[in-house]
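Trying the structure run again after the queue cleared.
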Amino acid sequence: MVLENTSFLDACRGRRPARTPIWMMRQAGRYLPEYREIRSKVSFLELTKTPELCAEVTLQPVDRLDVDAAILFSDILVVFDAMGVDVEFNPAPEIARPVRTAADVARLRWGDPREDVGYVLDAVRACKRALAGRVPLIGFCGAPFTTLSYLVEGKGSREYQHIKGLMFSEPALFHQLMASMTELLCTYLGGQVEAGVDALQVFDSWAGALAPVDYREHVLPHMRRLVDHVRGLGVPLIVFVRGNASLLRQSAELGADVIGVDWTIELERAIAEVGSTRVVQGNLDPQILLGPEALIERRARDVLDAGRAARAHIFNLGHGISRFTDPGKARLLVDVVHGYSG
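Done. Tokens:
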């Protein structure tokens, strides 16, 4: 199917479209009243496992905001269904039996996510039908370290004591887990491409917990394996590492098509770090959308001005949109980006 709006994919491939493309992480979610209406009827897990509802939610911000790409509505932890690991969302994810010992690792199964998480691939197909070529569809997964961190910690963490304890005290077991997780994610992303996604993003949301030396030693080799695999799938890849600006250069070495930038570093400086020949995505602080319209417009133009130094620029927030955001201000941001003339 021929796409009507290719500006996002053009930018991913290093070309400068007539207007800067924009999409927002978590653009389908709790800040939208139409999303909350659906969630009032079904649980989060029911929603993620019902392809037609996933498609409806995925298209909500496309219809309301006029963004240049849709991102599949799902969650990074659904891959645990391929591992025999139960996850509850209360509302944050919780795992009743975290994996922290060799015995815990031994009881894991490493299934085929194309079968065990087939509902996600069905949702991709449903989204593609519903989009009818309007904009591209982005698929995604959590990075190996971020996904494994949830498995080991059992829930969100501020100290990361269990995952770091495993990494430092039992590095062989840690790398065994990372290698297995990486292969699972390679298969999972391949399934999404086969189902029809037009691009992929890998979220390393917990990487900021690591010192650069530890990221380089314990995480980068597995990320390189994942990126090398995805580059053979024929769709653009975005790598987003959150929370530690000093990891930016290392993540750029992976060779993904697009480097996601969070809000903790000025975009101008980020481009200087990764090089002006690279494509960048980002990086407005999501909380700016809680401020007055004049501030949103000014700060958005600052990001757009800075993005001119890169080979190409995809406008995004520096992380997911806040659930407290007024949808009207999200639409204002899209209009500002689309109206920018530099």
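The domain at 7-339 is CATH 3.20.20.210 (TIM Barrel). Worth checking whether this holds up in the mutant runs.
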